[in-house]
Known about the structure:
Arc Repressor Mutant, subunit A
Amino acid sequence: MFALYLLFFKKKRTLPNSLLALILMLMAFRIGKSVLLYFGNDLEPAFIFAGLAFLLGIGPMLRWYVNGMTSSGFTLPKFYALELIPFALVFLASFFVNKAWFETNNKEVIIIFGSVLIFIYLHFAFYIFISSRGYKKMIKNHPKELRTKSQKAIFSWLGMLLIGLVIIWISYVLNIVEDAVPYIVGPIMYSMVVYFLSYKAFRLKVTDMDGNAFKRNNDLDLFHLLTRHLVDNKLYLESDISLSSLSKLVNVSTQKTSEVINQHARQNFNDFVNFYRIQEAKKLLGDKDNENFTISSIAFDSGFSSLSSFNSAFKKFEGLTPSAFRKTHSA
């Protein structure tokens, strides 16, 4: 249902969303094969091989999806169809596997089936590995302290997606290695992971994001400029400083200023300004020369227009009241 929503009902139809939808659909068919095999009787071998083939499709699509979520203007590789050849071959071959051939104890049949099974799981592991490597490279290139909200959400989502697929891979491998775990554990684990990932995708709103979150632009430079104006000129000490007045200083719209502050400071404008005011207040409260100054006077000297707003902001950032901070510092 989530896949169908992304393909046909989602307003923002992007390549990464389409790839995610296809991955989810292949996972659903893969789970369906396992459920039918466990609970059904005399399941046709064609369904078994077709279900296994879906893993060969998930791997390449996973790599493309990770690239699409971390690269601006991503398009499918020029020869992307070549990566789907293993999936196409095994899927088409599944229609020629008859019951008599599949159930025979012929040594050659066992070797062929075992070889195909091993190849499928190694193929899936390979794509999880190269997808993880690309993911880690992007993390390294984007330090945590410089990430925007969108970048942070994408990294969190992709990390969970890759971990989920590793869990799925391990559960199925353990199943085929001397039945280390019951067969039904595989589809159960598969289902739990897919449901969890679908929930997190909605929660993090990753279907509204794509690689454009990593597009090089001047937003970071603008953020540094805003910060310099606010801090170097100590504009935060002015009680009437506003989003509008700060925007005029850098000649951009208030909407753009708000967007840049939200993305790079991960705070709204008021919290962004109040953070520096609180740092100033802490210096004043900790200075012994200011012991005779009232809390109110320090609040006004720090840029706050009222004592109540100062107390609320101080407790929000420091976890205690200005009076308590002064007592603790004095002690």
